Each structure stands twice: as C-alpha cells, then as structure tokens.
Amino acid sequence: MNKLIAIGCLPMLLATTVMPDASIAAGATIPCEQMLNDLKAAIKTAKLTDADNAKVADLETKGTERCKADDDVRADAFFAQALRVLGK
Fold first, then answer.
1. Which stretch of DSSP H or E encloses residue 1?
2. I want to staple 71 with a disulfide (CB 3.0 to 4.6 A). Which of 23, 52, 58, 66 is the partner?
3. What string of DSSP letters covers 5-47?
C-alpha cells in the first residue's frame, strides 16, 4: 500500500476505532419512552394556559415522532422543553 494513502486514512481509522461514540461522550440519555411517560404524568397534574398547553402538545408530538424514529437524543430534548414549560 502506498504510504501516503495509508497516512491519509489514519484519521478516519482513528475516528472509527479509537474515538468513543458521540452518545457515550455526551453522557447517557434516558430512553425516550420513559421521558414520554414522565411528561404525560406531569401533564395530568399541570394547570396550563391555552398557549402553554398548545406548546406542550406540539413538543410532545415532535418528541413522539423522534422517539418512533429511534432518535432518543432529540426526542428527550423535545420532552425536556415540554417539561420546562410545565415548570418541571
């Protein structure tokens, strides 16, 4: 193998074998299904204005969509935003 090609491939090789997975580096996430259950429980006890209720419903819909797509990180972010609107 040409030495220049081998050296040029080194960063890609290191990134795929030595570097930790981005999700590990960012910290563990809560399964989106658990976050959704927490959100639904918080919604049941919350007293919201119509505007806040609409925000929470929109964020729940977006989070559920991401959760179904196995994108737990984004789903959790939407659910966390909804929980903040709820004051949690």
1. none
2. 66
3. HHHHHHHHHHHHHTSPPHHHHT-----HHHHHHHHHHHHHH--
∠81-29-34 over CA atoms, to 5°? 70
Helix (H, G, I), strand (E, B) or coil at 71: coil
Q: How confident is the model at residue 11 (pLDDT cuts 50, 70, 90)?
A: low
Put simply, whether the predicted model's pTM sits higher than 0.85 gets the answer no
pLDDT tens profile 32-75: 999 999 999 999 999 999 999 999 999 999 999 999 999 999 99
Burial 15-45 (b: 16+ CB within 10 A, else e): eeeeeeeeeeeeeeeeebeebbebbeebbee
